[in-house]
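Researcher: Let's do a round of design. I'm pasting the structure tokens now; please hold your answer until I've finished.
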């Protein structure tokens, strides 16, 4: 594995290996077993969008692995003044050992990988959020004991989360059902990937999507960069809400997941959020362990052989 740009690039075996390593790193973390496998290595972390979880979990994860995390705000870099991604990639490759980037265009992340000579990690784009979905799969596997055959239902906008959940879920043998308005479906590349897979369903009926689900997942109606559409989206997505009535049609032991930040009263009710807070904050915690697995696999694969 050279980069972690989107789950479409990775096989079920690669994803499973990352999940197994994440479990091991979580165990070592909980038992204070040192794992400084990235001593002397630096990770540049470029953010052109806000973040709480991604920034703090990558920064802490690098520290726990014995390496150095370098936070770089897109606005402060020359990138913000128009220096090309291709040049930024080639310059940073001379200084640091890996780059994590959160930005708008998926193409920018792909270009970093093309022009740089070090591992690149996607910390969220408009298209994908692979680090989040790795943590989601880890959490679902922890709670349900397996992924194969587990029904994952996503309700809401066909955004970066929906795209990555479809790919990650189907690749690991899950049944994935998506409930989105017709005009806000997931990306065409992802729908093409899922087409014909008997484990995939797409509907605008949220009750149909959530029927007998083992996991219900949701995300905000307006993602970062869509703030100008927020009022219009509130009208479109009004019925795409995870509340008591929807949860009642899922399996009795259904778990709820949310990548966070959550907008209570919009995509999820306060009642359902709090009833499933333990699962949701396990998911947030697992960002740390899952990303450490990605960092180690990319930046020091010899340590895990
Ligand atoms: N879920 C997630 O990526 O959170 P942040 O935006 O806080 O990083
Ligand atoms: N879809 C959301 C996810 C945030 C983690 C966004 O892109 O803002």
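Researcher: That's everything. Go ahead.
Model: Designed sequence:
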């Amino acid at each position: 594995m050279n980069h972690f740009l989107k789950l479409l690039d990775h096989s079920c075996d690669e994803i499973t290996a990352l999940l197994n390593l994440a479990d091991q790193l979580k165990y070592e973390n909980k038992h204070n077993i040192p794992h400084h496998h990235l001593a002397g290595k630096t990770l540049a972390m470029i953010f052109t969008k806000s973040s709480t979880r991604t920034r703090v979990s990558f920064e802490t994860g690098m520290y726990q692995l014995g390496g150095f995390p370098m936070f770089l705000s897109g606005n402060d870099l020359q990138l913000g003044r128009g220096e090309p991604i291709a040049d930024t990639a080639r310059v940073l490759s001379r200084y640091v050992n890996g780059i994590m980037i959160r930005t708008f265009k998926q193409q920018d992340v792909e270009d970093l990988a093309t022009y740089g000579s070090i591992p690149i990690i996607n910390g969220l784009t408009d298209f994908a959020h692979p680090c989040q979905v790795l943590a989601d799969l880890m959490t679902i596997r922890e709670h349900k004991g397996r992924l194969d055959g587990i029904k994952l239902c996503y309700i809401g906008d066909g955004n970066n989360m929906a795209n990555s959940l479809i790919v990650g879920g189907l690749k690991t043998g899950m049944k994935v059902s998506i409930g989105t308005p017709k005009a806000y479906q997931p990306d065409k590349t992802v729908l093409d990937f899922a087409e014909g897979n008997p484990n995939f369903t797409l509907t605008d009926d949220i009750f149909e999507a959530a029927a007998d689900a083992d996991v219900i997942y949701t995300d905000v109606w307006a993602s970062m960069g869509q703030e100008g559409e927020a009022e219009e989206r509130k009208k479109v997505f009004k019925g795409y809400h995870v509340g008591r009535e929807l949860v009642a049609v899922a399996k009795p032991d259904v778990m709820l997941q949310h990548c966070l930040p959550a907008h209570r009263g919009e995509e999820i009710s306060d009642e359902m959020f709090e009833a499933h807070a333990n699962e949701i904050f396990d998911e947030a915690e697992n960002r740390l362990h899952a990303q450490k697995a990605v960092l180690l696999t990319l930046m020091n694969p010899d340590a895990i052989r």
